[in-house]
Amino acid sequence: MSHIHRGCDHACCLQVKDLSVKIGSDVILDHINLHMHCGQIAALIGPNGAGKSTLIRAILGQVDYEGDIRFSTEGRSQALRIGYVPQSPTFEVGDPMSVLDLFRLCNSKLPAILPPSRKERQRVVECLQRVHGEHLLDKRVGSLSGGELQRVLLALALEPMPHILILDEPLSGVDVDGMHMLMDMLDELRKTLDISILMTTHDFSMLEQYVDTVFLLKKNMLFSGAPKAVLQSSDFADAFFTGGEKK
Questions:
Q1: Is CB count within 10 Å lower at the N or C end of the chain?
Q2: Is 4-89+166-186+198-241 in CATH node 3.40.50.300?
Q3: Phi-psi category of 31—alpha, beta or left, where left has phi over 0 and alpha has psi -120 to 50?
Q4: How many CB atoms lie within 10 A of CB 61?
Q5: E strand segments, the chain
Q6: CA distances from 31 to 76, 104, 217, 218, 226 (A)
Q7: Is the pLDDT of residue 47 over 70?
Q8: Percentage of residues in the chain with pLDDT exceeding 70?
Q9: Residues 132, 136: Cα–Cα separation, whole Å
Q10: How far apart are CA 234 and CA 247, in angstroms?
Q11: Residue 204: CB atoms within 10 Å
Q12: What pLDDT digit, counting tens, does each position of 186-196 carry?
């Protein structure tokens, strides 16, 4: 497995170079190249089975690969921090765990059965304020709407503050109004925090309004560029309408 190296001097960027993933004799990803800068929102799209989740797992260091993943942050010697929001975790409706409890389970060194201190409670409030979700502090996680749950998971992924935020299908299970609210929030975060955001999605209606770069994947990187250019390309039509899934 390759390591993340420093590169691209005097810029803040993530570069994936000639990345390939094999499982046995099956080639899942074949010589993938990807380049994105801080402050960008990029969307990774492709039909089911295209390798999107595998590419994310490679960036997260969860799968072996050939090739290079390089990160630079304007000459600073900081270690790469990645915030990750998985796809559609589910919680039981009757689960008594609150949003505060969830944060304490994920981030506190103290047993969650102990009552939270005032300082600890205020820290969670500050985390939720980043996503305008402080009012959710004492709500039961199982009672949250799809959009509210995405806010909470996003706040968790921002603690500690990452250089790159990766979201796997964040628009899944969210209604149209919730999609706009979530994308507005991501747009605000990338501008105020200067972080890169890479998201997978099967919903293309938001791309032109919010996304800087689209990466079209189907084992190979078929096309990358501005949303309109990708969506109007023959590669996009071939990937989604020629002998494959239709959108």
A1: N
A2: yes
A3: left
A4: 15
A5: 4-5, 12-23, 26-37, 41-45, 66-73, 82-85, 164-168, 196-200, 213-218, 220-225
A6: 28, 41, 11, 11, 21
A7: yes
A8: 89
A9: 9
A10: 15
A11: 17
A12: 999 988 888 89
pTM of the model: 0.85
- Exposed, middle or buried: residue 230 (CB in 10 Å: 0-12, 13-18, 19+)? buried
Contacts of 184 (CB under 8 A, 6+ apart): none
The conformational region for residue 151 under phi > 0 = left, psi -120 to 50 = alpha, else beta, is alpha
pLDDT at residue 42 is higher than 70: yes
Q: Which of 15, 25, 22, 27 is nearest to 1 (CA)?
A: 22
Task: Report residue 36 CA to chain centroid gap.
Answer: 13
Q: Indicate the length of the chain as a whole number.
A: 247
On whether the CB atoms of residues 56 and 199 are closer than 8 A, the answer is: no
Would you tell me how many other CB atoms lie within 10 Å of the CB of residue 176?
11
pLDDT digits (tens, 9 = 90+) for 102-112: 999 888 777 76
**For residue range 18-41, what is the model confidence (pLDDT) as tens digits?**
999 999 999 999 999 999 888 899
The closest alpha carbon to 193, from 59, 85, 104, 81, belongs to 81
Residues 6+ apart with CB under 8 A from 195: 38, 39, 83, 161, 162, 163, 164, 165, 189
